[in-house]
Specification:
The protein contains 5 helices and 4 strands, in the order αββαααββα. The protein has 108 residues and is of the alpha+beta class. The protein has one domain: Arc Repressor Mutant, subunit A. A two-stranded antiparallel ribbon has the order 1-2. It has a two-stranded antiparallel sheet with strand order 3-4. A hairpin with a 2-residue loop joins β1 and β2 (25-28). It is globular.
């Protein structure tokens, strides 16, 4: 059942070709800032909580301390909400993530 949910999430993913799932890990293909990349990843998993560890794993090409700093900035700016059990986009964060996505789709 969980596997079916993951497949549905992949199909319904609103991010288009910007994010690719490889071996269960999401990889952002576009050249984005760390903030934009985090927003796009959280948008991709919009209905599910994403832990800080999962976010860092998906952004493993980035400096971990930079990812942590941006995550804290997103939380302080109320673009994300959550705690150690995971983070979700707020409505403001969703709007900003959608803006990033629209700009990316417009560039392609």
């Amino acid at each position: 059942m969980r596997e079916a949910g993951a497949i549905i999430d992949e199909i319904e993913a609103p991010v288009g070709p910007t994010v690719e799932g490889i071996d269960g890990q999401m990889l952002v293909l576009a050249a984005l800032t760390i903030k934009q990349e985090a927003l796009v990843l959280l948008l991709r998993r919009y209905s599910a909580r994403t832990t800080a560890c999962e976010l860092e794993k998906c952004m493993d090409r980035r400096n971990p301390s930079s990812v942590q700093r941006v995550r804290r900035e997103l939380w302080r700016a109320k673009l994300i909400a959550g705690d150690a059990s995971g983070y979700l986009l707020t409505q403001t964060g969703l709007s900003e993530a959608n803006t990033v996505t629209v700009e990316l789709l417009g560039d392609s």
